[in-house]
Design brief:
Layout (H helix, E strand, L loop, with lengths): L3 E4 L2 E4 L2 E2 H8 L3 E5 H14 L6 E6 L6 H9 L3 E4 L2 H9 L7 E3 L6 H10 L3 E4 L2 H13 L4 E8 L21 E2 L3 H8 L5 E7 L9 H20 L6 E3 L17 H11 L6 E4 L3 H4 L3 E11 L6 E4 L8 H5 L5 E3 L6 E7 L8 E9 L6 E4 L21 E5 L2 E6 L4 H6 L8
Parallel strand pairs: 4-20, 5-6, 5-13, 6-7, 7-8, 8-9, 9-10, 9-11, 11-12, 12-13, 15-17
Antiparallel strand pairs: 1-2, 2-3, 4-14, 14-15, 14-19, 16-19, 17-18, 20-21
Helix pairs in contact: 2-9, 5-6, 8-9
The structure holds ligand LLP.
């Protein structure tokens, strides 16, 4: 079921008219649907019904808005965090510290201490040295840090190079063959309880085969470590499941993913952990924008909108496709380029795309913008930080303010010696 539907000719999010949100909050603005977030959380969990012992930690980086986190906390999700800031958000939103997993390739000592003092559930180590440092910091405080070692299975995830993480050339994890040596050196050290393995090979995966290959390697490593006398009780299988961005595109369903996981992990006898981000938040949000101009050109017209690459960076960064839909489609279609106002050609959302015919002043949305949208926004070109709205049935709330240039300047200082 889709909670972003046209009704009587205009787009609604659940029971709220998108035009009403534009009127109240202005544009550009991200709009999230609570019902969609909840449904995705439920479908992902149901997909894993064949996995008896599991822990699901929403990847906060996908959308760290406090209201979004609260919805997922209420749905029983924990959090996968990659910074002290995300950790603070997860806890502030109501996630139990024990349900927080701390990933991240460059955790600082201060962040490790924050994790220990917060009492988080698990540290996912990215290198051996991090384990020694964590053990020392925990032992000093009379604590025992629960940890797993992230391995790099050297699998090609078949996704965009910038969001691929499981090849030997990527910065993440330790070479899987090094795991036994690292376990031997870290296991039994005071201050750390090294209890398993983590893996995450990339994001927006449209094929389960690379995931299955990675998980099989992890399964072999679990057996090797156990044969070496180690107690393995937890395996973190990461995130990565793709979502459809283009009309008609299909992706492996959470159910298909869950069946694959259940099949591959038979007999592992561990708690399986998951870190889904995009599959929960991606299709639960849109970026609402207003057309500023339709500018003729020698070729396709340029539809210049009031959202830009600073609000939604994915097209500029990864050539990502976000569907563009008019809030009040006339039924006519045009072939156009879509761009924002920022002063570089990279600020282009689409080239030569067939879209709903729009005119200056019309509203439209970029779809599938709930994940890696607002969280990657900046204020480049001294544009306002884009606001966010959460819809719940027939009500909506501003859940993150527009931070305009005046507020931005308030945080800057011109030294008195200038
Ligand atoms: N776990 C770890 C360790 C991760 O690095 C990531 C994402 C996830 C879980 C969640 O992955 P997901 O289920 O969302 O695919 N900005 C990029 C995506 C970067 C993903 C980074 N890591 C984009 O806009 O496509």
């Amino acid at each position: 079921m889709d909670h972003f539907q046209h009704r009587n000719g205009a787009l609604f999010v659940e029971d709220v008219s998108v035009e009403a949100i534009a009127e109240a909050v202005g544009t550009p603005v991200y709009i999230y649907s609570r019902a969609t977030l909840e449904r995705h959380a439920q479908v992902f969990r149901e997909g894993l019904s064949g996995v008896a012992d599991k822990h699901i930690a929403y990847a906060v980086k996908a959308n760290p808005n406090l209201a979004v986190l609260r919805v997922l906390a209420k749905a029983g999700y924990g959090a996968d965090v990659v910074s002290g800031g995300e950790m603070a958000r997860a806890v502030a939103a109501g996630m139990a510290p024990g349900d927080v997993v701390f990933s991240g390739v460059g955790k600082t000592r201060a962040e490790l201490v924050q994790g220990l003092e917060t009492g988080i559930g698990q540290f996912n180590l990215e290198l051996e040295e991090e384990g020694h440092v964590l053990a020392a910091l925990a032992a000093e405080r009379g604590l025992n840090a629960p940890a797993v070692l992230r391995v790099n299975p050297d699998v090609d995830a078949g996704t965009h190079a910038k969001i691929s993480t499981g090849k030997a050339e990527n910065k993440f994890g330790v070479a899987i063959g090094e795991a036994p040596g690292i376990f031997a050196r870290l296991a039994g050290k005071p201050g750390i309880e090294l209890r398993g393995i983590a893996v995450h090979i990339g994001s927006q995966l449209g094929d389960l085969a690379p995931l299955e290959a990675a998980y099989r390697r992890v399964g072999e490593m679990v057996a090797t470590l156990r044969a070496g006398g180690h107690r393995i009780t937890h395996v973190d299988l990461g995130g990565g499941l793709g979502v459809p961005y283009r009309p008609g595109e299909t992706m492996p369903s959470p159910a298909a993913f869950g069946q694959m996981v259940a099949r591959v992990t038979v007999g592992w006898n561990v708690k399986l952990m998951f870190e889904p981000g995009r599959v929960i938040a991606g299709n639960a949000g849109v970026l609402l924008t207003r057309v500023v101009w339709v500018k003729p050109s020698g070729g396709n017209p340029w539809v210049i909108v009031d959202a830009a690459m600073n609000d939604l960076a994915r097209p500029a960064l990864y050539d990502a496709y976000h569907d563009f839909v008019a809030v009040r489609p006339s039924g006519d279609r045009i072939v156009a380029n879509i761009a924002g106002p920022v002063c570089e050609s990279g600020d282009t959302f689409a080239k030569a795309r067939e879209i709903d015919a729009v005119a200056a002043g019309d509203l439209a949305v970029f779809r599938t913008a709930g994940a890696y949208g607002a969280t990657m926004a900046s204020t480049y070109n001294s544009r306002a930080k884009v606001p966010e709205v959460l819809v719940d049935g027939d009500r909506f709330a501003l859940v993150s303010d527009r931070i305009d240039p005046a507020a931005q300047m308030a945080g800057e200082t011109v030294p008195d010696w200038l």
